[in-house]
Amino acid sequence: MKLWQVRKHWDALAKDDPLWAVLTSSDKQGHRWSLEEFLATGAAEVDRDLAEVRAKAGDFARGSALDFGCGAGRLTQALGAHFDRVTGVDISGQMVALARQHNARPAVSFVQNTRPDLRIFGDGSFDLVYTRITLQHIAPRYTRRYLREFARVLAPGGLLSVQIPERVPAGDPPDRLRFSPWPPTMVMRLRRYVRYHYPGWFPDTPKMQMYALARAEVVARLEDAKLEVLAVDERPHGDVVNLVYLARKAASPLGAGA
Question: Which residue has the higher pLDDT, 174 or 17?
Answer without folding.
Answer: 17
